[in-house]
């Protein structure tokens, strides 16, 4: 089965091999060394001060969102959520479930937030935190998170900025820095591993807040032991080994080359789709390098198309939320190259209004870069 | 590396192969079928009425304990915790973290609870729930959970019995039934998979309580979507496939044969250790079939012994809590046969006060059964 999904994504062979590495004592020296290496490498990749600013939790990405809310926000705290799609909505729901006093800026589907407008709003009223989505998986919009961090600045009274980058980093590089305090990621997208790990990177300010917080009421997602490297509960050993292998591949490729690769894949999908008669639901300027949502002509049913493709050996994702009835989503995140993408798009082409034009539009992308 | 640990445990080849099965859309039909098969098979294995009484969470086993407490207990509810070791203590801490009014029966380390005494206590005062450990991993004690369920009976006012069987089922069979409402398990011990999944089986009474509970305050561990098969957040796909393969192996072996195998391994460890000059810290009558804690002579240091063994290619577990300074633990849970155990014990023998006697004591167990 070919998969062009915004996660799960294809697993490189070296990562698969690491995944089935023999089990060992998670309190033993062998595994302890792997854990230190993984957290050290993640700290470098995500711009965290040390390995003890990285927490790896056996959980889905949503568990990472909840851990951030539980550890950095108290009931009654005021937080601003910038909602640019379904996963922004989820972040809001997680915060609300924990009693946070949420104010929400709802951005129309398919658009990115305006960093100056958000920064202005944050200046007008004190917020404990601002929760934003880096790469909105439901719409395929890349939000200008770094620009927002810059606009908010490093005023000591500035809110903590907590970023859901589950479908962003490391395919789309993002690092902690002034105005950007927490990055939440997951194992199954750009990290090229199977799902099962949530990853959190914390700034020194965020880490201090977590480790000095002795409120009761949390247990599994209490980040304090994870941040001290204590591996409080049985870690998902295979996934740690897999992540270790994947981090080696990521380092070898390099952040800029990786981003360029994903941008090229994005552009290839967009040229293919436009030429084939589909609608690009997101403008070029804010189009995600990792996932593309495409509108179908009214006579095409997304469910039917996906069933046909699955029978032909290709899985793509459906539209979500508002776009469920009219859109499909193509993932090009993680371990995907132009040949993988071409294989999938070729299977799609016969179903498009302009099949030949769609295929022809891929040609420039298939020539040596 | 040989491992004789109470988890992680060795992974059979068929399970390893399933683990690296190509990723697929977790909302697609292929994966949906695997999920249905896994939950249906788990329902049979754990005595749950239907697949919709089974929840599989991407988390460590402790996440399963927390999910049970969060979904079945409200702050202020009175619960009785029967604490027979470190993991009983953890169950208590999880309940306390969620504001449950916990009363605790502390059983001395190395002993099992008395079901009649606990049942008597439960009759004297109303409790919302009783939290017990089936197989206490820290001491190697098997608690009489079924006898307790029988003693408490099916009175509609009886408390929910919630059982941590993380190192018990399926190596030690346990099923839901009158007086036994929730079983919590994890992927990495008897289920022969890598760590990363918590498994909960609920009685009809427990399921009704969960699905009719609309309190806010939970998100990732809110069991309602999991019980409806909605896979609310990205599932740990590889582990689902692995569990599917493992369930096939478990079915092929059969529950009784499996229990007999683990009892034989337990007896082999005990004869070996006693003959070799170690102390059995738990009486035969309540000795766990899956993990054995052994006291060392005062001149032997458990940390030194474990380092020597690790250098020789064998990992065993250290003592926990009260027994940290004087004990080791040998795991014989999951995919372990007499040859695996013999390989490990043979590496241990030279370090024991009576090496030859220890080895000789294994001989009867190595003959064809």
UniProtKB/TrEMBL annotation, chains A, B:
Domain of life: Bacteria
InterPro entries: Aminotrans_V_dom (IPR000192), Aminotrans_V_PyrdxlP_BS (IPR020578), PyrdxlP-dep_Trfase (IPR015424), PyrdxlP-dep_Trfase_major (IPR015421), PyrdxlP-dep_Trfase_small (IPR015422), SP_NH2Trfase/AEP_transaminase (IPR024169)
Residue numbers binding substrate: 329
UniProt cross-references to Pfam families, sorted A to Z: Aminotran_5
Alphabetical list of Gene3D superfamilies matching this protein: Aspartate Aminotransferase, domain 1, Type I PLP-dependent aspartate aminotransferase-like (Major domain)
N6-(pyridoxal phosphate)lysine modifications at: 189
Hydrolase listed as a keyword: no
Any one GO MF annotation of this record: L-serine-pyruvate transaminase activity
UniProt domain Aminotransferase class V: residue ranges: 24-319
Cofactor (UniProt): pyridoxal 5'-phosphate
Family: Belongs to the class-V pyridoxal-phosphate-dependent aminotransferase family.
Record-given protein name: Alanine--glyoxylate aminotransferase family protein
Organism: Sulfobacillus harzensis
């Amino acid at each position: 089965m070919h998969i062009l999904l915004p996660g799960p994504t294809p697993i490189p062979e070296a990562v698969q091999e690491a995944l089935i590495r023999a089990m060992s004592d998670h309190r033993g020296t062998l595994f302890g060394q792997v854990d230190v290496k993984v957290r050290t490498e993640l700290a470098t990749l995500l711009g965290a001060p040390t390995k003890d600013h990285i927490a790896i939790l056996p959980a889905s990405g949503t568990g990472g969102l909840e851990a951030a809310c539980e550890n950095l926000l108290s009931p009654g705290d005021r937080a601003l959520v910038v909602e640019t799609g379904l996963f922004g909505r989820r972040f809001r729901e997680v915060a609300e479930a924990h009693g946070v006093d949420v104010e929400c800026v709802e951005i129309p589907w398919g658009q990115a937030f305006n960093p100056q407008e958000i920064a202005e709003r944050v200046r007008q009223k004190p917020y404990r935190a601002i929760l934003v989505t880096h790469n909105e998986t439901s719409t395929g919009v890349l939000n200008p998170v770094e620009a927002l961090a810059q606009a908010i600045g490093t005023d000591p009274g500035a809110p903590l900025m907590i970023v859901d980058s589950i479908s962003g980093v490391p395919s789309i590089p993002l690092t902690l820095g002034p105005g950007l305090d927490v990055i939440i990621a997951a194992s199954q997208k750009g990290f090229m591993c199977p799902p099962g790990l949530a990853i959190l990177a914390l700034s020194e300010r965020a880490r201090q807040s977590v480790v000095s917080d002795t409120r009761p009421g949390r247990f599994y997602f209490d980040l304090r032991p994870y941040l001290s490297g204590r591996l409080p509960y049985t870690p998902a050993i295979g996934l740690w080994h897999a992540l270790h292998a994947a981090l080696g591949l990521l380092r070898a490729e390099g952040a800029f080359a990786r981003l360029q690769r994903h941008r090229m894949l994005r552009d290839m999908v967009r040229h293919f789709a436009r030429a084939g008669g589909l609608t690009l639901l997101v403008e070029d300027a804010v189009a995600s390098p990792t996932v593309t949502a495409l509108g179908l002509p009214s006579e095409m049913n997304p469910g039917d198309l996906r069933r046909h493709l699955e029978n032909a050996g290709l899985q793509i994702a459906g539209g979500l939320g508002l776009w469920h009835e009219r859109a499909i989503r193509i993932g090009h995140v993680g371990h995907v190259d132009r040949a993988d993408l071409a294989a999938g798009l070729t299977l799609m082409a016969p179903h498009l209004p302009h099949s030949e034009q769609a295929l022809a539009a891929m040609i420039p992308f298939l020539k040596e870069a």
